[in-house]
Design a protein that fits this description.
transport; 138 residues; alpha/beta; PTS sugar transporter subunit IIA; sugar transport
Amino acid sequence: MISIIVGTHGHFGAELIKTSEMIFGKQDSTLSVSMQGSDSLETTTAKFNQTISQFPKENQVLLLTDLFGGTPFNVCAQIQANDPARFELLSGVNLGMLLEALMGTQGDVHELADHLVDAGKAAINKFEINSDEGDELL
């Protein structure tokens, strides 16, 4: 079983989880960590460790953060480095990524992380109107 932590600046992660629950229903193995402006590195680390302790120790954990190199990411990088078999870390969390992750919580966290990177790249598209078809779309 894979547990998921969405760690972000402010309440972005909590709101992503709420939005995903509108689509998939209540997610018992998905929690958020909200770093506030007054939080130090130590406070943020304590928040992540407290959240991780809420999951069974046998669960692998997918850590999703908002910004590569931000404090939540840096804290998670240290957590992942200390136990790479249990944790995976991805930055750039968005609703599509979280929904995709929620569909893969029964497999291996490392395979899920690879899948999410591929799915994330495939999900970014630029909409362009072909001038010959433009009138048909409007």
